[in-house]
Amino acid sequence: MYDLIVRNLKFPSDPSLKDIGIEDGQIKEIGKISASGKKEVDAYGDLVLAPFVESHIHLDTVLTAGTPQWNESGTLFEGIQIWGERKKKLTINDVKSRALEVLRNQLSYGILHVRSHVDISDPNLTALLALLEIKEEISPYINLQIVAFPQDGILSNRGNQQRLEEALRLGADAVGAIPHNEYTRENGVESLKICFLLAEKYNRMVNVFCDETDDGQSRFLEVVAMLALQMGLKQKVTASHANAMAHYPAPYVARLIGLLKEAEINIVSCPLVSSVMQERYDAWPKGRGITRIKELWKSGINVSIGHDDILTPFYPFGTGSMLQAAHMAIHLAQMTGKQEVEEIINMVTIRGAKTLQIESQYGIEEGKPASFVTLPAMDSFDLIRHQPMCRYVFSHGKIISENKFSTPRLNMDGILK
């Protein structure tokens, strides 16, 4: 007898309904299970997926839009300026209360793995300390990775190099850089070398904010790939954004993609934020604001999708749902084919897991943790079109979120039957 059996589940690759048998928090059997369970749950033919993965978010900045003022230009640079003022007033309780509110919401959306960047430019490391506390508190439910992120640069902000190292000593999972925000190209390259050396010293992952600009001359992605290759870090390295790649000439892109493939690094695109923050300086015709998701994917490079911001000086919208981010990615990347839509769903699930380097403990397979979500949808197209809430969210064999759907009742005097 199993601890729990979840019945009548539809897998994306198989229209027949199956059950999942769970024991001691692990998946023990997948199929038509004749045995009974101490507890049984009917999934009503829901689509079952491995948990959603948030590859890129800023939990320290969430829910701060409008304070101390609104970002009227919509640009990254005004966002950085406003956040620079807001972060002077950070407290541990302030950061924790906002971040936990968003994490609870993410959990209801079926997100059980989150990579959050945290600004370490604050001399007191307030946001970092708050998120390290949260990481421990929510570990039974959500796997939270923390990236030490030097928002104001490494060389262009006195003390950030030391704070980056302190963040790693305190327990940050990855180290970041923002080379396009340094004073010069040379400083940007040097900042990346510092970042990679710290990752090597502390055996951590790397996640760089890379070329988040419309400037086609911003070409730090090649440096990230080269360092990943030279230092043997490869899949432990992620480049977020890479927006400038949309402006690179075709011959250069062809060479760059070859280097990216050899380096085996991950790319994260954040289509919601990029669609409104990028291309602000261009006259018409305007670009779409995102990196070359489709070309990168077709070339065999691991691409995942992040929500990035939720009600912040950088982006005053966002729900936290990975399906909302996936919906935007499909439109901007023009990936509407059947395989393409399925791949976009992979970019917020299994490809995100690869970015976070958690594949060994991720996926719906016998012997792996019983962590998965069920959604009232027929297929990937249905998921994108309706963006439903999860009916059930399971973490290590326990239901941690449940949504009892109701059917809307229309009162239209028989006009619609």
Automatic annotation (TrEMBL):
GO BP annotations, alphabetical order: cytosine catabolic process
Gene3D superfamilies per record: Metal-dependent hydrolases, Urease, subunit C, domain 1
Gene Ontology molecular functions: cytosine deaminase activity; isoguanine deaminase activity; metal ion binding
InterPro entries assigned to the protein according to its UniProt record, in alphabetical order: Amidohydro_3, Metal-dep_hydrolase_composite, Metal_Hydrolase, Metallo-hydrolase_Enzymes
Keyword tRNA processing: no
Enzyme Commission designation: 3.5.4.1
Protein name: Cytosine deaminase
